[in-house]
Protein 1
Amino acid sequence: MNLDIQIGQGKTARRAYGIDEIALVPGRQTLDASLADTSWYLGNVKREIPIIASAMDGVVDVKMAVLLSELGGLGVLNLEGIQTRYEDPNPILERIASVGKDEFVGLMQELYSAPIQPELIQKRISEIQSQGGIAAVSATPAGAAKYGDAVAEVGADLFFVQGTVVSNAHLAPESVTPLELAQFCEKMPMPVILGNCVTEAVAFDLMQAGASGILVGIGPGAACTSRGVLGVGVPQATAVADCTAAREQFYQETGSYVPIIADGGLVTGGDICKCIACGADAVMIGSPFARAAEAPGQGYHWGMATPSPILPRGTRINVGTTGSVKEILTGPARLDDGTHNLLGALKTSMGTLGAKTLKEMQQVEVVIAPSLLTEGKVYQKAQQLGMGK
Amino acid sequence: MNLDIQIGQGKTARRAYGIDEIALVPGRQTLDASLADTSWYLGNVKREIPIIASAMDGVVDVKMAVLLSELGGLGVLNLEGIQTRYEDPNPILERIASVGKDEFVGLMQELYSAPIQPELIQKRISEIQSQGGIAAVSATPAGAAKYGDAVAEVGADLFFVQGTVVSNAHLAPESVTPLELAQFCEKMPMPVILGNCVTEAVAFDLMQAGASGILVGIGPGAACTSRGVLGVGVPQATAVADCTAAREQFYQETGSYVPIIADGGLVTGGDICKCIACGADAVMIGSPFARAAEAPGQGYHWGMATPSPILPRGTRINVGTTGSVKEILTGPARLDDGTHNLLGALKTSMGTLGAKTLKEMQQVEVVIAPSLLTEGKVYQKAQQLGMGK
Amino acid sequence: MNLDIQIGQGKTARRAYGIDEIALVPGRQTLDASLADTSWYLGNVKREIPIIASAMDGVVDVKMAVLLSELGGLGVLNLEGIQTRYEDPNPILERIASVGKDEFVGLMQELYSAPIQPELIQKRISEIQSQGGIAAVSATPAGAAKYGDAVAEVGADLFFVQGTVVSNAHLAPESVTPLELAQFCEKMPMPVILGNCVTEAVAFDLMQAGASGILVGIGPGAACTSRGVLGVGVPQATAVADCTAAREQFYQETGSYVPIIADGGLVTGGDICKCIACGADAVMIGSPFARAAEAPGQGYHWGMATPSPILPRGTRINVGTTGSVKEILTGPARLDDGTHNLLGALKTSMGTLGAKTLKEMQQVEVVIAPSLLTEGKVYQKAQQLGMGK
Amino acid sequence: MNLDIQIGQGKTARRAYGIDEIALVPGRQTLDASLADTSWYLGNVKREIPIIASAMDGVVDVKMAVLLSELGGLGVLNLEGIQTRYEDPNPILERIASVGKDEFVGLMQELYSAPIQPELIQKRISEIQSQGGIAAVSATPAGAAKYGDAVAEVGADLFFVQGTVVSNAHLAPESVTPLELAQFCEKMPMPVILGNCVTEAVAFDLMQAGASGILVGIGPGAACTSRGVLGVGVPQATAVADCTAAREQFYQETGSYVPIIADGGLVTGGDICKCIACGADAVMIGSPFARAAEAPGQGYHWGMATPSPILPRGTRINVGTTGSVKEILTGPARLDDGTHNLLGALKTSMGTLGAKTLKEMQQVEVVIAPSLLTEGKVYQKAQQLGMGK
């Protein structure tokens, strides 16, 4: 059943579902968690853990990228943030962590107006690779156009082209030459991952443009900035399931399998499991890693649209520091709320559901189980988000 | 699908949708925000920004009307409020801003019992126009009957006849002659905008009566006074979409295009974008402008039903002051929560959705994406409404 | 559409709707509030206002019954409470108002174990009537069996037989003779009102037993005690609409019109309007009147199941005192939150909706407009219920 | 109607319902509560009350098991907890009750790493039986494999094999021999109860494996740990109704009636009534008994997944102490919020609904009556869960 609903005489709409509205149903078989295989490929890069740390300045720097690579995951470095504007980012990060709430937006607008230095881009990539890490980097379409050559020259392992909303048909003013995604994918020597998108049609367009991975998620959460400021967004369970259909179609037509990476609003192990059950191959998460002792944000987390000089969006959240990146990603957990040992949670969930591989996990049964706000949920979420005290 | 739902054996109902329950879906094309054209016409008045400041005493005075005109928007002056009862409204506004919570309703009932002075009506209109502003004024149907001639004499640019609920068939006691809307539109020398209404039938009736614009919105919010006190209201997404159908029908029949203005409960840029996506041509908003440094309310906001001597409704809210009217309407934003740079938010949203004009924005895809109350939403809304601290 | 929904393989259910989930839609006509006729009959008793004060000890005593009668409403005296157990109820009410939270249930269990005195029953009825009030009294089925004769002897005007759930087919232990409702209605010299019930079938049964009015409402609110303790309840919009169908059916078959009185969980004017729009002829409310300066509860309100020695339900709530009973029932209002001037709210709503009589009000259009919890609603409800501070 | 809903192009799902979303509808007959028969059989053990205390260390020890047996209920002893790891559990329980929030998970991981002593298992069983109690014990599948023989030797009355998710087809690493459920049921000299499961298929499999009872409930609550950490769960009303269908099918095929025991997230009498109305034969509850003065948790309650050394889930909640186990189970109640006199609530509910036996209670009418979060519910739930103050 997927009937269009009439909002009014002049408008119809589909019902879309969020991650908080679904739950996973155990099947007739179960599995020891140790038997669950969570490995996957992004382009030619194999990873044991389908969890990527977001290209956000409070989450990934050189050290985090290296650590996450070692643990079997992946961290993406933002090429247009603090790390590539400042030779020594540490005093800058200190200022962000210590500024008061009221001066925050202004400070961010100031700090992010310093110029991006192409040689710092190359330096960060080399730093990651020289320590044995996978150099995955990210830029906006505009940034990719500008700094793509510098990245190609030094040779990163993976390139994410990521905007709030990306399409393969962007109309720009005459004075501007927009990034041609297909050309860019063609010319770059490493796999290019494109996003974010939320619909089957756009996901398919991006695959045709040559993407080696698709980031899915625009305004996925009810409290998300994109929905508040722009009204734009699709709840994540529906967005992932839709884009998954594009992956299957593209695979049938071309034989090429382009993984779907769910990105946005995921906090707990359960959120990750549910995205994969909706068809995702991997997830990209920010705030859970912002809480790592090694995270550059020092207990703070902010979105990459926050420093916009014209229309800042998102805000800085004090997420706190709850453990090491190892405890968060592969455990053992010191917290019992689903934010530590994310890999353990995924494997346990797969065992519970009888899924031996991520492909089997994508097929598990789902129920719609609306999670009306309960006091427990408020309490738990508030703590997870560092909004309680 | 628009099936009637059976509430019980004796009653059926439609499901209506609110702005908080929908979100907008990016299409296959995107657009530079700078290319989005947000201009529109109200009668013969062209405006660059489809945002109107409500005819509320805490929101619009002469200065605000002029400022908003200059910025490309519009502000409507309430002809039955403080500005037309008192030669010098400032000490009155001071008293409202400084009175304690418990004496508030009583003070309002007292202050609004002072007589309306027709010469002050004319004076305010002249003051706006002499400073280059567009003189848009508002009265209730009863006020329009009484003061219409005074307004016609001095010549305002736009006349809003606005009641909580307006119909073209009002039954009054024999001792009273109700305002004949069609006669009134006929005789007034400027465009007349009528409202509020929420159904296709009434919107069509009002267009036939000669309205140059229709205000849509009765009890749109779940916490709205009209719903609490009177039980009356229709969630705004449905109301706007329904009245949009009347506009299309009227246009087909007469060739005359009567814009739909969504009014009530809109707080963020996202709310504005969603109303237009449901078919509105423009929006009318109060509380976002009540937070302007230049607003007459001095950080306070109250509804026009509040001073009723018999059945006061609504209350005074301390919304605070967050920036200049320019920052709020056209930016750059100093806040990151969607309440600054409303025009920038609209243009960015249109770019994201690939809509070059407001007419294209009315056609974008919508999903139903219930926004269950989340802690983030509580936090954000509470701050926006000035209820947190 | 009224399809059974499958909860699981072994169980289907209907969707029922609460008052908070609906809103009323203005039609093509409006009306001056002064033209709205709110009169109705209960048996042979005509009242100008379709609002009855509940038979609760914190709400109605002799004085309140007289005052409410004078104002055009009605108050029902509980025959099994404080007023008929104690010659002088005032010191008892003082104790209830001053006891601490933890001793409350124990104190209530003690106070309500004092014997009911039939002569006090007769005395209270005479006191009401001698002051010109309508003597409406209430007892449980067991109490009606015991004290019916005493009431008949002195001659009350209306007799309410009211239990949490009443049926016309009650199975009792052999040692007990249950009240035969039909016999009781037959023998009593005044109209008998029966309830509470929630289904068309039971409402019809009670009409056939001779009821002159039906009380509708069992566990109507989501937070209601009956739902929490017993799991029992039907949301009020559905319950009222269903029982309305029984009234129509019974009227067609017998020519006798038995009014439906919605009872439970109603707080604001809007709640009252919505019940009538679902088909009710009148409403019974408690907490709004418990807040009257004249109320016996002195700012406190408690349910009649609270003193149960075995399974106490409900609790004492500090509702505070907000105005006189006149201000609450017929205004003018001193509060702007929908809890003052309930008659004014009803008339204004009827005007807005174009309903000249309660019969027309029963026919107005309803939409389903889910009122997800918003911070405003929490704030407002908490204040109304006296749970905030 | 049980249509599959399309989450997105690639995924469909059923809508599942929780206990909070339903309510029970009174029928045409009512009943004196004293006439309600609540007896039931679990294997060959007859109990007067269909309420079982969970095998949790804060809930059941030897004393509680004996007390609950005497009152007509049942308490299950956890064979892998504090009671079987420590000769004298009291100082251990003291430490759990007194540790600070931040050290809690670490302490639990430490305390639960002490070895389980088979002779303590046998000793606890003997202690219960020698005091006249029913010795019902519980182990995980792994624990059952290890300690089953010790239990069989000493002879408990009932054996619960209980894991978060149990299936009859568990895939284990080659080094491990998983418990064969059918073999285990066969060889054990007492009835074996298996769980937890949530689907008709698995419930049927477990019945075929020889279960004498089925525990139903995985992640039933919206705030449940399993849903947060693993994403796994089915709302309880649907899970119970589905597994009930397996019971009916199995009974038709074999003539053997295997009771369904709803387990998880039940707090009030109403919750219990609603589970039975969905088809359950009995319920298992933890937190309501953790609040008993006699409970080993001393006002604290924690889940059995909490001490996991790798992936701790759940947390310790300060539920407080509100009365004796007798007051909680059979009353008279001293609290009015539905957490005292659970049997009285069940009998009163059955009377209200006209159900003479639990089999009739399984057939009562249910409505879907979404319990959106209301301030009352927050207040009530917070108090019940000990999260308020």
Note: The radius of gyration of chain A is 20 Å.
Protein 2
Amino acid sequence: MRITALAGGVGGARFLRGLRAHLDSLDGGPHELTVIANTGDDITLSGLRVCPDVDTLLYTLGGGANEAQGWGRAEETFTVQGELTAYGVGPDWFGLGDKDFGTHIARNYWRGQGLSYSQIIERLAARWGLPEQHVRLLPMTDEPVETHVIVDRDGEQEAIHFQHWWVKERAAIPAQRFVVAGLDRANPAPGVLEAIRTADLIVLPPSNPVVSIGIVLLVPGVRDALRGTTAPVVGVSPIVGGGPVRGHADACLAALDVEVSPQGVASLYADFLDGWLVAPGEGATAEGATAEGAGGYPRDLVVQEAPLLMSSPEAATAMAAATLRLAEAVRR
Amino acid sequence: MRITALAGGVGGARFLRGLRAHLDSLDGGPHELTVIANTGDDITLSGLRVCPDVDTLLYTLGGGANEAQGWGRAEETFTVQGELTAYGVGPDWFGLGDKDFGTHIARNYWRGQGLSYSQIIERLAARWGLPEQHVRLLPMTDEPVETHVIVDRDGEQEAIHFQHWWVKERAAIPAQRFVVAGLDRANPAPGVLEAIRTADLIVLPPSNPVVSIGIVLLVPGVRDALRGTTAPVVGVSPIVGGGPVRGHADACLAALDVEVSPQGVASLYADFLDGWLVAPGEGATAEGATAEGAGGYPRDLVVQEAPLLMSSPEAATAMAAATLRLAEAVRR
């Protein structure tokens, strides 16, 4: 089986680690997993290009992530950052550990050699053992792009980098909209459209629907490929109990005037989504309800329920298993 | 008093720290010290520009050096280097610690902003408190230059980077000659020639006469400025007891067919050197001997003796004091 997933950072990475574990338990393997990562949250810090979602996917799938915080490396130290602060370089609101700096210096070195993001990720992934896991990690595009958030400051519209808004401001300033600098002239990275067109199944992990998966969907050709692929597309709601499981998806949805609910998120994917996994009690009533668009879900969407809190790797594996059961219930 | 020094790395830095301490003990201060640093041993490692002599001067004068090894930072860790090795990036023969990486990342960041080496060193020096010490650190040139060593490999002449020869090969491969890539079109950095022309005294610390001070002397205009300045030029021999106090000056002198002796080194500076401090027993016989060029020293060179082993900061301070006493005995 060949599965292709679109993903952002922590939530996507944890879900995909569970999916990888579940796939390994299935017969007929090895099953192949291709992950198309959001690169809109990339940022240049202290002169080094940092790709938070890509790195979170690498570290999580490779077994090197800080499990408590979800991003960054386990057992980190912060010597380099301390020196940069002493030199007055770099923002103090984005914490990069020493191990993490190793990744960014390696990326910077390879960029200087003229390698593309795709080629760089391939090298990083080799160290993290992704090929041996039958995981292929692709950036959504090889072009450098950056998501910016339009906010109102004293009556003036201002664009601030997504990370500034997300990390420094904790999304507390209302976002008016999101713009992705460079995306209009960006091409999908090599293999991205093919991975969507030739997959047996497309999966949307519970990543942020606006600033993670929503950005991948803006890459020219990606949304059309999802509409046109013969593979079923199933997703997992990132909204549980009226709010995001993690992060600030509520603030992102508010900017789009979309309801903070599994229904609201499903509406963003309505043109290509076939199956939708939601938390217990948040689906429509039992069988057939969705055939009429009941429960506020798009018509013809197959909705199933499962526990959606990834409180442990095992919980994530169970969620992935529920996602594959849902996939069996949908047809294109 | 305004003193200008030409300097390489460890030996120069330790001597200049002693000179700074001695100057602070003199009346009539603050006395100003300008240091013109060799940048020929600069190298790009893992995509980051590393300036070993400049950084050794910064760390030593700023109180952050690893005193045992002379270069690098005190109490270092090597997390970043370990990550780079895991990614297969960077040579394994040049050890960079995490604190040191902070300096290189800051330099890389400022280079990306378009700052010159001079401007970058000024910012680094601010963190290390050099302005408060009345020390001005200048690169010999703002152009990127690199000393290469011509060696014979299986009958073929090959140019290898100075650091490769010095650190990896430990200067064990015979050097045929040294070439400095980029130096023919290099200009002295702002302030370099002025610092030589307007000083009250020029000092040559016991730095390597070939690959440290010798490289500074190759910067267009520097040697002429030393010949033409009204300030006396006094130096300290890096050769004691027939060999270098530290490093591989013997291998460097051999490439130039110059005797490994205080006399041999003095001959390299003969056209501008006025006073020469050598180890006890290595000068000419008592008074007047040098007036006739006795003892193998250039004619008219004033030679004095003093202990030249910088076994402690106090020993370096005493050497610096002896250097200033020597300066009082010479006239231009």
Note: The mean pLDDT of chain B is 94.
